[in-house]
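anyone seen this seq b4? input:
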Amino acid sequence: MSGTITKIDPESLEFKTELEKTVKFTDKVCAQFGFVYNPDAEINQGIQFGLTRNKLMHGKRYCPCFFITGNKEEDRICPCKPALEHEIPEEGVCHCQIFCTPEFAASQAKSEEIEEIVHQHSRGLTREECQILLSKSDIDSDELTALFEARELGMVTFKVADVREWMEWKMGRIAGADVLVPTSSFFQTLTESKLDKDENIIVYCHVGSRSAHCQRILNDMGYTKVSNLAHGIVSYSGEIVRG
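predicted toks r here
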């Protein structure tokens, strides 16, 4: 097996020389198209290493996130056509994450700052940071705790919906949960819950799988601001209410 593996030494002079050229190349791409680099330097370095590796192995800076098939119509040379025509204009970032619009990069940097705040508990959230957190598809235990603190201070409004069953709710639920919408009677209890389609909603279950399913259903029904507590109540480190 080892005999079939092409080994390129990143410490070699050849690699380092080519890497310098790759960095100049990605700098030029940013300047030419008005892109900026991802705020995460490790992502940029990883992609630059991959582009350098492909240049040495295949003679072109093929996108390192895709297989190289030898088919000129399929193989992506950086910056690839899908990234320029669709990914960056529509999503703000290319598939490999190295090239971003300035707006995406600023948002990403802000998200990383918020993540550091909530996990280190260094300070409370601002209103803007609350909204950024609530725009995420998945949030974790520390983020939900920070949001509860902000809600108590009147800085943000949202509803927390438990989608487990009544028995599970009685055995232990997250303090601050607003409504029980069991998956076994989801549509009936959803109507009774009076959750508004335009309000911020966080759903949770035991480990995050049922709530992820309910999140998709709510999105399909036109609920526009639904987040899921990743890994569910078992991951939650805040207060649990029983009875």
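The longest strand covers residues 159-162. The chain has two domains: 2-100, 126-241. kinda curious what u guys think
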